[in-house]
Amino acid sequence: MHIKNLKINFRHIGGLKNILDIDEIKVEKGESFGIIGESGTGKTVLALSILGLLEMPPGEIERGEIFLDGFNVVGASSNELRRKVRGKKAVMIFQDPMSTLNPVLTVGEQLKQVIIKNQGLRGRLARAKAMEMLELVRLSDPGSVLGKYPHELSGGQRQRVIIALALSCGAEFIIADEPTRNLDVTIQAGILVLLKELQRDLNVTLLFIANNLGLVSATCDRVAIFNKGRIVEQGETSAVISNPSSPYTRMLIEAIPRRREERGVSEEKTAGGKRSGENRLDPAGDPSAQEAAARTGTNGPVLEVKGLVKHFPVRQDLGSRKMQFVRALDGVSLKVESGETLGLVGESGCGKTTLANTMLRLSEPTGGRVVFDGKDIFSLGRKELRAVRRDMQIVFQDPFWSLNPRMLVKDIIGEPLEVQTGFNELERIKKVEKLLEMVDLPAESVYKYVHEFSGGQRQRIAIARALSLMPKLIVLDEPTSAIDIVSQIQILELLDNLKRDLDLTYVVISHDLSVISYMSDKIAVMYLGKIAEYGDVRRIFREPGHPYTQVLFAAIPDINTKDISEIKTVRGSVPSAIEPPAGCRFHPRCAIAVERCSQEEPELRETDDGRLIACHLWDSRGGSRLPL
Ligand code: SF4
Questions:
Q1: Same structural domain for residues 577 and 474?
Q2: Candidates 586, 604, 612, 625: which one to mutate for ligand 1, based on the most atoms within 8 Å of Cβ?
Q3: Pocket of ligand 1 (CB under 6 A)
Q4: Of the residues 36, 62, 195, 353, which has the maximum number of CB atoms within 10 A of its CB?
């Protein structure tokens, strides 16, 4: 592919807006080329333009050429694009496979249609070819997958089917637009390895669009860094990452959260969570701030979770009266000390969000206890619970959905104050202004609406709201996953400063291990409703002990990942929580499982270095790393 001098604008009411302005991109045959940039930088517009799929209007190609195998896509008629380009020279893999697959046709039917159209095969030959394509994308049991509908497949299986469809077209140029964005990390690892193997084995050319430098580092030979529709830097991936020439690339690399130990946060500093430092909050004249200041110096567990169980009833089938139970949490115990940050990690469905919601009593448990600040929160009456709620707050993932768009900032942040304190309007506004300053937003923002702020600023508003009653504990549910790369690190730094200044205790949920390692003192690794490993973040990151922790950590590429072979994949996907596997729940996917693992459930036991691990084989190996 060769792009020359391409300029694309978008027409809107106010006139024309330039979206892309590219001098040159040349992707050689058989190469893997990455495009990196934040959302809204024109990456997807470029991908759509290569296939002639850009909607015009509002899009408008002012000038330039896009050559695919010598054919200029720009200016080609829709008939030519259909006959010569889409599915012939190039195909695209989107982030959401469900939107690409036809929900009313089986996988086999969809594959056969493509094979008949593009390869001229029919009947049994077409079916055999469809099987072959599913084998090529390493789908286990391809015979049964052929007869399934898209909704019967997991996210990873669907993405493999999409890749099989793309390859069935016979196109040798694959555009993958954030193909692993909605997948769990262990599934993501499998898809990345597959794409890379196909590129190497079949000499397919891969254009990989991502917003994560780690993914590109592991998969792409060369990379172009996009900012505001322009290429700020391009070259060999390893050279760009190790020696970036553009300030924007440097900023992207610096925006990756570093581990606590790399930042020089020593064990003494975080022991018990107390650290020295200027208290930016002035308690004078502010009753809730005085309460917070008075808490300084109190140690001990703020939160104790004991044998927590949460089962959700679900109907066996649509219309059926028979109930089944999703065992979202099955006996989880942990402790969060005052001033500490506990990180919860694990793939979707592991129970981390259910754990957070249940420990805040946003959802009633099936069994077990949660003691917050010395009180068993499940035995509290409404009035007592309301008093306790002042001290426990939650910040959600997407600030756009969690904040009411019809309310002014003064009311969003001031609402808890209105409910819980006797402040009058003027006192409330004064307090909201103070809270805005604490999260580094101008006090004048009180009379604005949420849509007037960027994603990062909205998350600051959500944090200010959570702080309004000066809580002891804040649960941060994926606090940075909905905001752009550069704002992420600013939000993490802000949370770090607030924790220090206000003696806060955090529970952080994130699928992003760099966020967890940046913020946490301890981590709990969860798998299918249970804790697999629990302990000091430095020790676990330095030497993950449980086999699941090991594969989870090894499945995630970062900017130091030089080659796809460094990424470890794990077989299968997370089983259903309705009927979790007997014995150790990880045993069907564990590379070192023994017979006992499928029969007997391992207890969480303390190891020599003070962490807790639920694995039968830990002791027998003398506490050393398991051989994976
Ligand atoms: Fe693997 Fe067995 Fe340990 Fe479970 S108990 S993690 S299956 S070795």
A1: no
A2: 586
A3: 547, 584, 586-587, 590, 592-593, 597, 602, 615-617
A4: 36
Domain holding 351, by residue range, is 285-299+339-362+386-540
Q: Which of 525, 548, 605, 616 to mutate to test the pocket of ligand 1 (most atoms within 8 A of CB)?
A: 616
Q: Whose CA is nearest to atom 7 of ligand 1?
A: 587
Q: Whose CA is nearest to atom 8 of ligand 1?
A: 593
Give pLDDT tens digits for 334-391: 999 999 999 999 987 888 889 999 999 998 999 999 999 999 999 999 889 988 988 9
Please give the torsion angle defined by the CA atoms of residues 428, 434, 436 and 438, in that order, rounded to the nearest 10 degrees: -140
Q: How many domains does the chain have?
A: 3
- Identify the CATH number of the domain in which residue 452 sits: 3.40.50.300
CA pair distance 167, 79, nearest whole angstrom: 22
Q: Is residue 79 part of a domain?
A: yes
Mutating to test ligand 1, I would choose from 533, 570, 584 the residue with most ligand atoms within 8 A of its C-beta, which is 584
User: Interhelix angle for 107-119 vs 123-136, to 10°?
Assistant: 110
Q: Are residues 115 and 201 in the same domain?
A: yes
| Owner of token pair 């398991």 | 626
CA distance 317 to 416: 41
Q: Backbone phi, then psi, for 233, in 5-degree steps?
A: -165, 140
Record the pTM. Answer: 0.83
- From 518, 540, 562, give the residue that closes a domain: 540
Greater confidence (451 vs 422) lies with 451
The amino acid at residue 491 is: I
The reply to whether 305 falls in a domain is no
User: Which has more pLDDT, 401 or 294?
Assistant: 401
